[in-house]
Structures are given as C-alpha cells and as structure tokens.
Design brief:
By secondary structure, the chain is α+β, with helices and mostly antiparallel strands. It has ten helices and twelve strands. It starts with 5 loop residues before the first helix and ends with a helix.
C-alpha cells in the first residue's frame, strides 16, 4: 500500500471506518492520483497530489458544496480535506446504458439518463447570484481561475476568462502577438454576440470526463471549477468534445428556456477552455482557437 496522508488514516480511525485494508489505484486522472480505500465500513475515494497548490483541494471542496442544490445533479460528499488530499464518499460507477435516445433507463423515477441530467442542470443553473465570480479564486485543472466579483457578465468573461488565459498563453510563448490582438479586438463585441444572462452557479469544467454515472443510472458530477457565470458556458463545455443528445436540451429547456441560437454561440464560450488546454497541453489546440478568432474578426 502506498503511503497515505496521516490525516486520512486518523479520520478513518476516529470516524468508525477502522484501518484501511487496501488502497486500489484508479485511472482516469492526468493531474492527481486517485484511489479507492477499502475500510470496515465500505470504500472511500481519495485524491492526492503532493505538488498541488496549498488551497487547491479546499477550493474543490468549496465548489462541491456550492453545487449541491435541491433538484440538482448528485455530487460526492466531502469527508476530509487537506493541503495534499481530498477524501470523499466512494460512488460506485454504473454503465451509462441511457446514452441512446429513447432508452428508458436512467434515474429511480424511470427517466432516461440524459433527460434526468437536463432537468438537474436546469435546477442547478436556476441558482443565481447578483454578481459574477465566486467566494475565492480556484482552479481549472491546475490553472488558477480568477473569480473576482463583477457586476457585469461581459466584463467578467472578457477580463477574467478570455483575456486572462490569452495573456497567459502569450507569456508562455504559445500564442503570438497577432493572435492575442485578435482576441483582444473581439472582447468589445461580446455584448452584441452573447445574450444577457443572470449569474448562475456553474460546474465550470463540465467535459465528459467529469460527468459520471452511479449504479442507479443517475448522473454524478465531479472535479468542479465552480463560479457564478453564464449558464450557456456550462452547456458549451459539455459539447466541446462531443455533445449531449437533443433529449438533454429538451429536458433542460422544459425548466429553463434558452435564448434561440445558443448552440451557435458555444464556440465563443469554449475559447476559454481551448485557451486553457493550449496552456496545459500545447500547440495542438492553437488551430481551433485561430478558427474561432477568424470567425469573429
């Protein structure tokens, strides 16, 4: 068994879980180490990173708490958190047989998987704030995510999302000066390209790898980069590497209608995530970024 953080061992002993019988490594993460801990009271989920920023797991726990809302998607309960770890309930995975349109398999009420998620995401996005931002800065993967409060969503998205990532990429030598200027010239036009929206609580990093399924067929969200922003940005991220079926969007709009043409706007929101991927993984993401900039310049 790998050496586990002493606070995790102490938590298990003092909360009736007993000694950890086995730590089983789990795949799927590219930033942190993940393990299932087998205890006398059942399994727990542990994520560790000895190189993590000192507040990274605390900010993750804060995001999970903010996203836990009535009627919203399931999120793992946080049991303990430290500078180099977060300990959560273990949610056993189930097969996503409800991916197909018309498959009547999903939650305990018999809804299909994607319909369930659409209703839950609408409930989540109906939780709003008068301002854009979040209680603390947090992280999009390992990249700092700035969440200073702003009254105006266009200012928030321009300054703390697109410009922040673009200037970081330019400093890292990944985005040349003409690309940076092209993005900066786009920012004043955001009010004419994106509709006004309230500041909704967002998962913030909702790609398919952060969308899981429990044994009952219900959706589970993990690894948030939570903040109050435009709901369309969360939906856009869901479609960045493959899109949910139409049944998801129909269910979502049955609770929370969207401004027509929302799918045509997804590229603009996803500039933020593509720039972050450029900063994390390199030049393979430069082509899609330039294609979007050419579309809007």
């Amino acid at each position: 068994m790998d050496i586990l953080p002493p606070p995790v061992l102490d938590f298990c002993l003092t909360h009736g879980y007993g000694p950890i019988r086995r730590a089983v490594p789990l795949g799927g993460g590219c930033i942190n180490n993940a393990s299932r801990l087998d205890t006398d009271k059942g399994p727990l989920f542990l994520k560790t990173n000895s190189q993590a920023p000192p507040d990274m797991f605390e900010r993750e726990a804060e995001g999970l708490a903010a996203l836990t809302v009535p009627g919203g998607p399931r999120l793992p309960k946080v049991l303990a958190v430290g500078q180099d770890f977060i300990l959560q309930e273990f949610i056993a995975p189930g097969p996503r047989r409800g991916d197909g349109e018309g498959n009547r398999w999903g939650d305990r009420k018999g809804r299909p998987y994607w319909e369930t998620l659409g209703l839950q995401m609408a409930a989540l996005h109906n939780v709003t704030s008068p301002r854009f931002g979040f209680t603390h800065d947090n992280y999009l993967g390992p990249t700092p995510q700035i969440n200073d409060w702003e009254e105006d969503g266009y200012t928030f998205f321009a300054k703390q999302r697109l410009r922040y990532q673009a200037e970081l990429a330019h400093r890292n030598g990944l985005l040349d000066s003409s690309d940076l200027q092209s993005l900066i010239s786009l920012l004043p036009h955001l009010p004419s390209l994106l509709p006004p929206q309230p500041a909704s609580i967002l998962h913030g990093d909702l790609w398919s790898g952060n969308l899981h399924t429990d044994t009952q067929g219900g959706p589970v969200l993990i690894d948030p980069a939570a903040y109050y922003g435009w709901a369309e940005a969360d939906l856009a991220m869901m479609a960045l590497f493959g899109s949910p079926p139409d049944s998801f969007f129909r269910a979502y709009e049955s609770v929370r209608p969207l401004t027509p043409g929302y799918r045509d706007r997804f590229d603009l929101y996803n500039l933020y995530h593509l720039l972050n991927h450029l900063n994390l993984f390199g030049q393979s993401y430069l082509g899609p970024i330039r294609a979007i900039l050419r579309r809007y310049n």
